[in-house]
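Notebook B, p. 112. Complex prediction, attempt 2.
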Amino acid sequence: MNLVDIAFLLLAAAAVGTALLALLVRELVHTILWVAGFFVVLAALYFLAEATFLGVLQLGVYAGAVTILLLFGVMVTRRSIFRRDAATGIGPTSVALAALVVLLLGAVAWRFGGTGAAGVTAYAPAQLSQALFGTYGPWLLLVGLAMLAALAGAIYLVREGRE
Amino acid sequence: MVGWSVLFPYAYLVPLLMVGSFVVVGLGGTRLRRFAGGGWIAVAAAGASMVLGVLLGVAEMLDPTYTDTHVVWLSLPATGTGTFPNGFELVMGTLVDPLSGLMLLVVTIVGFLVLVYSLGYMAHEKGLPRYFAELSLFLAAMNGLVLADNLFEFFVFWELVGVCSYFLIGFFYEKPSAASAAKEAFLVTRVGDVMFLLGVFLYFYVYATSGPAGGWAAHGFLFVQGSSPFLAGVMGGSTPLLTVAGLMILGGAAGKSAQFPLHVWLPDAMEGPTTVSALIHAATMVAAGVYLLAVTSLFLGFTATDDLAIVAIGGFTTFFAATMALVQPDIKRVIAYSTISQLGYMVLAVGAGFAMVGMYHLFTHAFFKALLFLAAGAVIHAVGTQDLFKMGGLRRTMRITSGVFLVGALSLSGIFPFAGFWSKDDVLSSLFGELGSHPLYWPFYLLALATVFLTGYYIFRVWFLTFSGENPRDRSLPAAHEAPGVMLVPMIVLAIFATVGGLFPFVPAFAHLLPGAGIPPSYTATDLALSALSVGLAAGGILTAWAFWGNGRVFELPAGSAAQPVRRLLLKRYYFKAGYDALGLTGVYTFARLCDFVDRYIIDGVVHGLERSFGGLSERGRRIQSGVVLDYASYVVAGVVVLLLFLLVVGPYLVATWGS
Amino acid sequence: MTDAFTTAGFLALSGALLALGLFGILTRRNFILLLVSIEIAVNAAVLNFVYFAAFAPTTAEALNGQSAAIVIVALAATEIAVGLAIVLGLNRLRGSIDVTGATDLRL
């Protein structure tokens, strides 16, 4: 048990905890705050894995942009943003399914994982960007196209006066 | 020297003229109102074809040769191997020989006379163009049949006259009885037609596969003079297959000529116009069966078994039909049964080996039977009923008709010297001469002899009921009037033929058409005694009829008499029609029920079952499609679960079992 | 467990997070909560990519993993944008963002 291990365990517990809270609290705005925390914890986990660029990205995109977007969503769909939702029916089937997934994924982890790793290497963002714009250039272009299409679609969906 | 034979290659014009009339009248339809619904056109065509037909007949009398003119339709060369080692040919053409010359005389003359008569008889009917077109087509087909030079062509025209008969029986198609009679005639003769075709196939099979090279089949089934001994000799004359083929031909002839047991359709065919009964169902078409037998016996030859079967059918039918004629109250039906009976005589003669004698009787019968029908038609035309018991005393108002009917009746009875006497006597004496050749000929000879008595009785019963007495028994009948001239003239012409027609074979030239028929060269005392016997029987029949029905008497069979059941049996026609109907109904209904069951429970069951199962399936599938996104998400997750299970459980198991 | 910071460890973490996300997806009827659940599940996947990259034996493979993670993040952000547009449209159409009410595609 070294420090990294302890940090991982703590962060993992925090991630699961924030995700659970985000899903279980009754108030929508609280959910978003908790999920923002979840995103931050994940960013910390990325830093722990020496993926600094991704950690920054996670903070910027998720903890920042996505959270704000979700908040906007809440704001424009309700008159008062602080309102408790009625308890949502948690069907036994869905709980069972989710539990089954947990079990199965645990089994996968136990079956295929578990061997100790050599260690974690840090890579400079420069290397990453070289890979990204070199080998994965076409992918990046495709992602850009997808984002453009999504933007156009989103604008179309919320256009005023649409039947 | 240019002889009469130059005409022979143009024989095809005889049917072709009537085809032309059929086309013009059939297409002209109601536009021909000014020509009596096309009647004058048909009469003109029939007149022209009669002139040509009579010329051909006379040419045959003066120059009795076989002239065959044909085109080849289909030709398979002789290869010496395979199914038809001798090759095979299909031709279409005309054969002018003494026999067809004789038939041409009968068909064209009677056809022309009946068409002329129709102008008067049918004047008030609807659908005249249809009538004359169909009659033209019939005459075309009948002449074609007479002139056919091979068995296949014969069959084609045979079917054509059959379909014309169907059309014309059902001429008054609005009457349900006429429509059903037409169907009955078509279906019953169809049984015979199928047998005929089977017979043709069998002959074809025998001669095409095992006959001599260049034989009959290779030459297109041609009727060739002198081929009978050739074929019969080559094939041994009596192979089982040839016997069966001959029986099949007999079946075909029985269907067309209404011989027992396919006789039921002819009395019902009287639903057609009387002219049709006279031409088709007395003089020509029904005689085609006899003609077929004669042609087959002359050109192909029957085996001894066939001959016996033909004699049996003919002899039995002669008597059988005559008994039914005894009690019928319908004037046309009596004559119809008489036709069946007389056709039986012809079949009898052909079976006994005297094809020409049978043709002789066919020749005279055509005239006196057509005469009887036309005279009966004149009576029906005048009083509007066919019920003998309503008529009576018509001799006073219809003098000429009663006279010609009397001539026809005397001729039919076989009273010297009318035409029927000579031919019937010839049939009986020929059979008498053959009695020694087979012991079973005796009973049929006796039946035929007894029929002479019955014939005299039933036809004079008709005459007395119709014409003798003071007044019609039914007072409500319209006042009768003599038929118009256009109807009288054909009847008078036929009456002349019915009187002197029997003497024709004594004319040396005419005898060429009927070699072997007529009075034997040496007229022995036995022959004289036989003639006296048959005339005596006929006279006895006439006297019996006079005793019962003469001078307007009506004989009522006392109730409870022992003869009542017999009378009922005869009136019900031996229950043959009812039996056939029941048989057909049972068979068809059972089959229909079976089909219904299969359709309803098996085919529909499968269809509906499939439909229901798919319906249920889609109903259940429809519920899956709830529209709620969450449900769809759970399906995705379930899929993931399945995949994971596969990865964890099934995959390792497969790898462990089958290796990597 | 002597060493938490191993493949087994982060696999267990990401598995748990994915299951949580799925649980949310299956049970939440509020569209925004649905989006949140989806984000949790997606992040579980991204976590996998990042950690496998961290433990990858070669540089190229490590960079592969991180690149994939970046693409996923970008696409997830895009999806959120479209998802929120749908939330707005749904709200305008029905006055509610309850996804169980939107069943027009049902047969």
